[in-house]
Specification:
mainly alpha, 2 domains, two-stranded antiparallel sheet, 11 helices, 73% helix
Length: 248
C-alpha cells in the first residue's frame, strides 16, 4: 500500500530529501517554540515539558506520508528523531551545554535528566519509525500512547487527580483514565489519517485493538515500577509487546 514520496514521486531520493527537510524544520520549529515558552515562563515547567512530550512525536507522525514507502522512506524519516538521540546524549552527558533544551525537557532543570525520559522518548519514536513504519498499527499505538496518552495523564492527573489509585498513591483515577482515552483517540485519529493515503485499512477490529493497548498501557503507566524505571520506557515497551500480540 502507498507509493512514492509526495514530493517528486518520480524521484524517491529527491522526494525523501524534501520530506526530510520539511520534517526537520517542523520539529526544530516546535522545539524552538517550547524553548522560548520555557525561557519566558509562559507555562509552568512541568506543563511546558509535557506539551513538548505530546506535540513532537505526533507532529512527526503527520509527516510520514511525505516519504516513500518501504524501508528507504522509513530509514530517512528516522533521521529526524535519530539526530535528537545524539543531541540529548551530548547535553545529558554534559558535553554540550543547552539550558533552553534542559528547561523545556527536564522535570527539575538537571541536564542529566535528559539521559532518561527524553532519551527513551526519542529512541522509541526512532525505533517505531524504522521497524514498523506507517503501515503498522503497532507504531501508531506505541507513539500515541507515549505522546498523547502519557502526556495527558500527567496534565489531567495533576489538576483533577484527587482520588488516588489504591496501589500507587502517586497516580490517580483521573490521570489513568485520561491516558487511556487520549491514547485511544489519537490512535484512531492516525488510523483514519493513514487510511486516507492507503497505508492501512480502517476496521473495527483495529479500533478494538487500539483500545486494548491503550487501557493496558495506562495500567502499566500507573504501576509503581513505571515510576522507578521511567514511563517513557515502560509505556512504549508495553504498547509494542501487547500490540504485537494483537495486531500480528
Amino acid at each position: 500500500m502507498g507509493g512514492g514520496p509526495m514530493f517528486f514521486p518520480e524521484s524517491p531520493v529527491a522526494g525523501n530529501l524534501c520530506a526530510l527537510v520539511l520534517s526537520t524544520c517542523l520539529a526544530l520549529s516546535l522545539l524552538r517554540l517550547f524553548e522560548e515558552t520555557a525561557k519566558r515562563g509562559v507555562f509552568e515547567q512541568k506543563l511546558n515539558r509535557k506539551l513538548v512530550h505530546i506535540t513532537i512525536g505526533l507532529a512527526f507522525m503527520l509527516c510520514w506520508p511525505l516519504y516513500s514507502s518501504g524501508s528507504e522512506g522509513a530509514f530517512i524519516a528516522a533521521v529526524v528523531p535519530g539526530v535528537n538521540i545524539f543531541k540529548v546524549l551530548l547535553i545529558g552527558l554534559g558535553i554540550v551545554k543547552d539550558e533552553a533544551t534542559v528547561r523545556s525537557m527536564s522535570r527539575y532543570g538537571d541536564y542529566r535528566e535528559l539521559l532518561r525520559g527524553p532519551l527513551y522518548y526519542a529512541s522509541t519514536i526512532t525505533f517505531c519509525c524504522m521497524m514498523y513504519w506507517r503501515t503498522s498499527p503497532i507504531a501508531i499505538a506505541a507513539i500515541c500512547n507515549l505522546c498523547a496518552g502519557d502526556g495527558f495523564a500527567d496534565i489531567i492527573g495533576r489538576r483533577f487527580g484527587k482520588k488516588k489509585l489504591p496501589y500507587n498513591k502517586d497516580k490517580s483515577y483521573a490521570g489513568s483514565i485520561a491516558m487511556a482515552v487520549a491514547g485511544f483517540i489519537s490512535s484512531i485519529g492516525y488510523m483514519y489519517y493513514y487510511s486516507m493515503f492507503g497505508f492501512m485499512e480502517r476496521s473495527s477490529g483495529t479500533a478494538v485493538g487500539f483500545l486494548v493497548v491503550s487501557v493496558a498501557s495506562s495500567l502499566v503507566e500507573s504501576h509503581p515500577l513505571s515510576t522507578k524505571f521511567d514511563d517513557n520506557l515502560t509505556v512504549p515497551l508495553a504498547s509494542v509487546l501487547i500490540g504485537t500480540l494483537i495486531f500480528s
